[in-house]
């Protein structure tokens, strides 16, 4: 029982100490809140309210000020008093033990103090903003007045530099003056919200007018001084060139110059309407047109000297090309009577001759234009450049044609000499075969011989034509040479095989009695030799059996034959 009592006493002591500690904490917070409230009271809000009140505010600015004044009255007469009351009550309550009520009261007065502090800061910031806006507007009044006076002074002092734009520029300046007066009045009255709207528009209009005053004079100067002077110079230059009989082809310079003058006058209207950007675009076009006319005149001036210098050279070039064309056509006509021209040489030469005639026609027209003082030198110079280029190409083509036909006579001579050689070779081969006194000639050899003979005969016929096709003749020569070489080989083969076969048949006689196979082979070989005229087969038949009876005999007899003949044994061709 005693232990329980002791526990209760200890618990009571702990609770009591806790209450005392919390009460002490609350009293410290009350002291802090009291200090913060006293600090807020030291802010010279009343002086700032009075200072802003002396600014003669109107409109929305005045409404804003009245709201701030009401907030200040609420702070001074109600909020501070309520804070004092609640802090005093909280101090009294801190002596009791109703801790939940004490916490609620503390939170309530803390919130009130913080809200009041925020309100004071907001009122102070809004008052400062009203003063700053008023200051800025008064400064703007001063700056805009200086700017306006500067623009006005420029227009008055240099009105001659603006030409037809001056009237509308002065209208813009007058409108600026009215807007400036409105802004000044609103600023003096303190209606800063309306003044701010007017100020933005006033700044924009002032900037636009400032740009116009800067942009228009150089444009106006170009349109009234620079370009007219250049147009005057163009007219004078054109007149001088015309007096000196210069011409400009299809380009009508007086018309171009008049268009430039018209565009200058039209652009003065654009400038009068205060459209400098559009006027600048047109000015650039005018400058380009002026440069174009200058260039046209300069081109004619620059072209005359080279034209005069080139006249004699082009004339000689044309004459040379004409002479060469005449020579080429005559040569082709002569050769065409004796030879077939297979590559349109004559047609091409005639086309080139026609081109020369065209070039000469243009040249003669240009010379006449110069003589008649109607020449456009730039066009003539262009003609001369093309003429030199075209004549060079024509002469190159003429040279190629002449070179291609120049060898026809030599080719014909060489072809006739070769034909004679072919005929001689054929007769020589025929005599060689006839001198063999063979019982007959193989039909295959005769067929090939007659083919070559006919080819040679056809070549002779083609060579005797009134017009010789040398390209065809050349192809025939190559074919006949190849076939004649083959015929020579066949003739040699015929001679060698017949001679060797005859010798081997004679040599085989010594073995016919003693060797039946030799007798049989000799009989067969004789048949092939005497009746069938197959000398190579006859040689093979008898040679084979002799090598069996007397090995190496054929090789010995063959070597002896070629030694007597004085030639090497021909290599056998491998048939693929």
UniProtKB/TrEMBL annotation:
Keywords: Cell cycle, Cell division, Cell membrane, Coiled coil, Membrane, Septation, Transmembrane, Transmembrane helix. The keyword Nucleotide-binding does not apply. Its main location: membrane. It is found in: Cell membrane. Residues 1-3 are extracellular. Signal peptide: none annotated. Residues 113-186 form a coiled coil. Residues 23-576 are cytoplasmic. InterPro entries: EzrA. It is a single-pass membrane protein. Negative regulator of FtsZ ring formation; modulates the frequency and position of FtsZ ring formation. Inhibits FtsZ ring formation at polar sites. Interacts either with FtsZ or with one of its binding partners to promote depolymerization. HAMAP family: EzrA. Belongs to the EzrA family. This is Septation ring formation regulator EzrA. It comes from Levilactobacillus tangyuanensis. The gene is ezrA.
